[in-house]
Amino acid sequence: MRKQLVIVFLPAFNEEASIGDVIKRIPRHFHPRFDVKVLVIDDGSKDRTVNIAKEAGVEYIVSFEKNRGLGAAVRAGLKECYERGADIGVMIDADGEYPPEQIPDLLQPIFNGEADYTMGSRFLGTIHGMKLHRRLGNYFFTFLQSVLLRKWLYDGQSGMRAFSRQALKHAEIIHDYNYAQVLTLNLVRKGFRVKEVPIRYQVRTTGQSFITFKKYLRSVLPAIIKEMLRPVKKEKIDRSFDKGLKPEIKKNSTKNSGLKQKYDNFVKNLERYIDINNDNHYH
Q1: Which residue ranges does the record assign to the Glycosyltransferase 2-like domain (predicted)?
Q2: Which listed residue, 10, 130, 191, 263, has the most CB atoms within 10 A of its CB?
Q3: How many domains does the chain have?
């Protein structure tokens, strides 16, 4: 039986201090029927980011000759995941602020048919070390997304996300500088279901920030307006695997007590997703 391929990609710009540890912490063997690979999108780094990623065991590296911006790096990561045959794509920042150990948690709503696109939510989970101005900025942009989508979100700025294969295919990022808001606006407007998953978050202690706040404001607001004004069409999304998963979820939801029950449900949903997705695989 063919294993399902999960590709975890890390957009990186001068992250030599943290990227090796992040790669080593990515779960590779959380289920025997999943094959996990790691991809680094090097956004024109001038330090040892690429060499350290290789030493840490990364399978794929795509390097830009010069720095193009976080939005361009994430766009390339989504494209590379799809073209390399990923069934699920995962994005996580290379700065060590997000917990690679929780990648399986991020995947579960996709496996059990609840979502096509997931985001690790710091504000539903725990946050250590975030300064007030960053919190306020997150609240502002997340509230703006919630209003525009008419759907309540808690953390629209997350740097940890997962995508079904169809979400990988249809995701568009119109802005090279950043991706956080326009990507969610784009996918939800196209009919993809988003769900947030609580995560643990620790503000970076090494390296430099990928963005500055003033430039972020000047660049992101016009991009949000542009995304909302341009027409998008609802995609025809194949969710045939949902039919095999939802009865299992409903049956177990009343008995979901304790970590063992949660783990058993997770494994069952993984196996059902694999069996059904093998029958409906289209790449």
Answers
A1: 8-169
A2: 10
A3: 2
40 bridge partner residues: 10, 61
How many other C-beta atoms can be found within 10 angstroms of the C-beta atom of residue 149?
A: 16
- Whether 169 and 250 map to the same domain: the answer is no
Radius of gyration of the chain (CA): 18
Nearest to 160 by CA among 204, 203, 99: 99
CB 2 within 8 Å of CB 34: no
- Contact in structure between 183 and 171 (CB atoms under 8 Å): yes
Instruction: Measure the CA–CA gap between 98 and 25, rounded to whole angstroms.
Output: 11
pTM, rounded to two decimals = 0.82
> Which structural domain range is residue 65 located in?
4-229
For the CA atoms of 227, 229, 235, 237, the dihedral, rounded to the nearest 10 degrees, stands at: 50
> What is the rounded distance in angstroms from the CA atom of residue 216 to the CA atom of residue 157?
12
CA-to-CA separations, 143 to 28, 155, 178, 198, 258, in angstroms, rounded: 35, 9, 18, 18, 34
Domain boundary at 229, 254, 269, which?
Answer: 229
Both tokens of 281, joined, read: 């695989």
**CA 125 – CA 89 distance, rounded (Å):** 22
List the end-to-end C-alpha distance of the chain, in Å, as a whole number: 16
SS3 185: helix
Look at residue 237 and tell me if it is in a domain. Answer: no
Shared domain check, 250 and 185: no
DSSP at 63: E
Decide: helix, strand or coil at residue 231.
coil
Q: pLDDT tens-digit profile of 174-220?
A: 988 888 899 999 999 999 999 999 999 998 765 555 556 677 777 78
| Among 42, 81, 93, CA closest to 64 | 42
